[in-house]
Design a protein that fits this description.
By secondary structure, the chain is of the alpha+beta class. The chain is 54% helix and 16% strand. The strands form 6 sheets. It has a 6-stranded mixed β-sheet with strand order 14-15-13-18-19-20, with helices on both faces. Strand 8 and strand 9 form a beta hairpin. Helix 1 (21-43) packs antiparallel against helix 2, helix 4 packs antiparallel against helix 5 (117-141) and helix 5 packs across helix 6 (153-174). The radius of gyration is 49 Å and the shape is rod-shaped. The chain starts with 17 loop residues before the first strand and ends with a strand. Residues 176-182, 220-224 and 568-574 have low confidence and may be disordered.
Length: 574
């Protein structure tokens, strides 16, 4: 218990004390270094976005021991004319309120607490000041000497006020809301805060010492068990002070390392995000649990319907199902659910799902090749590569490969493919396919007499007329020289075929002028029907060709429908 005594109650003269100035200065330096180290270390408790209580404990331990060391350095600086020793138990106990007060106060500096910043700092400063005060008076109670210890009530209250007020000012001086705890911009604020907190610790101590009144009593001063001599105390305090200094150096070293690591990690992360955003491919990265880690804006632009899914915590399966919902075709001829199941199985087994050239048509008509690959450490990376330009180029090459250069009609290759497809398609629909084989009459004389330009003009004109005279579901092609073919699908009546044949003949016979010269020609048309005359492409072409030659031999400029067996020159005139 503390005993209070006013000056006018003194029955005898109190002991007078002096101070060692060097030790007083040393005590303040220890307090300031301890405050700086404690603040710096405690701030790392929340440097990575999650609170780490171990860092807070280290910071509180550093600051608490610094307060304790400062007190007993101050006690060594306090010189009385009688011997003084200290109770080992109370000396050890005195460090507890310092550590607890510092830990509670530093914890209140957390930015994520649901309190206003000024309220947090006010409470934190008060708690730190109270802890310093409790430590001091327990430490004073540890004094063993031939004197009774009393306190002047006014100076006692003032000492507590100094501890609390300067503690509050100290934590306000830190004021790190605008800065990262590990940045250089925060350092001046932390130094100022440590200096003021050091002043709070030292100021409280020396004001409290002014409150102390030592009245001499009779006693032998003999050694008692459990008592610490000033020499031993000095050694312990020196050790603690060196430890505080080392912790301060460690704090600064750790600070530099962590700032460097944090800066490097931040730059690496920024570069990674910038690189992912700069690529022209859509990008998704999933962790080993199937959770979305990263995506870029290109993917969101490719699939605007999936933008609501691109949030933290969404799973690979959710995005896969959302993506598959908008697709009509899947690789390897799979249906939607089978495709989803195989992709999920591949993810679980850490292998690439299905084909590595999975093509998907985007909502705006573009095409992307999808490549999904497992990541060695677990998870999946998916890349959507825009191949629209390649597809367009392929279409151009395909068109060139399947188009007659002069007339722009499909060529023999395109005609053969179309006839094969038409026969298969109409067979499923139980419909017929008619093939017209057209050879121009009197074309060679025009070409020989008026030149190739005139001949080319005739071929282009006939091609344009054929294209206009057939349905969109049909096809006209040039298969060589002055030979043309027409494919008629979904034929149900021979009368329809004859009507179209007569229409085509009439169109061919129409006058063709080239530079004022009449280059008109005629046409001989042979017709064969699938499956009536042939069941496959080759036999159907032979039948139509034989029917056309029969027209040639019987006077030209007419049409015939094949009748008989292909290859026997049997045809019936219409």
């Amino acid at each position: 218990m503390l005993s209070f005594l006013s000056v006018d109650q003194l029955s005898q003269q109190p002991l007078s004390a002096t101070y060692d100035a060097a030790l007083v200065a040393a005590s303040y330096l220890v307090a300031a270094v301890a405050a700086f180290s404690g603040l710096r270390l405690a701030r790392y408790a929340e440097h990575d976005g999650t609170y780490n209580w171990r860092w807070l404990f280290v910071g509180a331990l550093t600051m608490g021991f610094g307060v304790w060391s400062m007190h007993f350095i101050g006690m060594l600086a306090f010189k009385l004319p009688i011997p003084v020793s200290y109770s080992s138990s109370l000396t050890a106990l005195s460090v507890v309120p310092a550590i607890v007060g510092c830990m509670a106060g530093l914890a209140l500096l957390r930015k994520d607490l649901p309190l206003r910043d000024d309220v947090r700092r006010l409470i934190a400063g008060t708690i730190i000041g109270a802890g310093i005060g409790a430590m001091h008076y327990i430490g004073m109670a540890a004094m063993r000497m031939n004197a009774a210890l009393f306190y002047d009530q006014t100076w006692f209250i003032l000492s507590i006020a100094v501890a609390v007020v300067l503690g509050v000012v100290g934590v306000y001086a830190e004021k790190l809301r605008e800065f990262e705890a590990t940045s250089w911009a925060a350092l001046p604020f932390q130094i100022a805060s440590a200096a003021i907190l050091g002043l709070s610790i030292a100021g409280m101590h020396y004001v409290a010492m002014q409150a102390a009144i030592c009245i001499p009593t009779l006693g032998s001063g003999a050694y008692v068990a459990g008592i610490i001599s000033p020499l031993v105390l000095a050694a312990n305090v020196s050790g603690a002070s060196i430890l505080i200094a080392l912790l301060g150096l460690v704090a600064i070293k750790v600070d530099a390392k962590m700032r460097h690591a944090q800066k490097h990690a931040r730059l690496t992360e920024e570069r990674m995000y910038a690189a992912i955003e700069s690529i022209s491919d859509g990008f998704l990265l999933f962790d080993e649990n199937g959770k979305l880690l990263l995506h870029n804006g290109v993917f969101a632009q490719m699939y605007p319907s999936l933008q609501d899914l691109l949030v933290e915590g969404v799973t690979y399966e959710e995005i896969l199902r959302g993506w598959a919902e908008g697709r009509e075709t899947f690789p390897e001829g799979l249906d939607r659910e089978t495709y989803i199941r195989k992709c999920l199985e591949a993810f679980e087994s850490r292998r690439a799902p299905l084909s590595q050239s999975d093509e998907d048509q985007l909502f705006d008509g573009r095409w992307a090749v999808v490549r999904q690959s497992p990541v060695k450490v677990g998870g999946m990376v998916s890349v959507w590569h825009d191949v629209t330009a390649i597809k367009k180029q392929q279409d151009i090459y395909r068109e060139l490969a399947l188009t007659d250069g002069l007339t722009k009609l499909p060529n023999r290759t395109a005609f053969t493919q179309r006839l094969d497809d038409a026969i298969k398609r109409n067979k499923r629909a139980d419909k017929k396919v008619a093939l017209m084989f057209i050879d121009l009459d009197k074309f060679k004389p025009v070409n020989d007499k008026y030149g190739h330009d005139a001949g080319d003009h005739v071929l282009v004109t006939i091609s344009e007329r054929l294209s206009r005279m057939i349905r969109e579901t049909d096809m006209a092609a040039r298969i060589g020289g002055d030979e043309f073919v027409v494919i008629l699908e979904q034929v149900s009546d021979s009368g329809d075929i004859e009507t179209i044949a007569e229409k085509i003949l009439a169109g061919i016979r129409e006058p063709i002028l080239f530079n004022g010269i009449d280059c008109s020609v005629g046409g001989s048309i042979g017709i064969a029907v699938n499956p009536d005359h042939a069941v496959d492409t080759d036999d159907l072409m032979k039948a139509a060709d034989e029917a056309m030659y029969e027209v040639k031999e019987s006077g030209r400029n007419n049409y015939r429908i094949f009748s008989g067996v292909p290859g026997k020159q049997a045809a019936a005139a219409c």
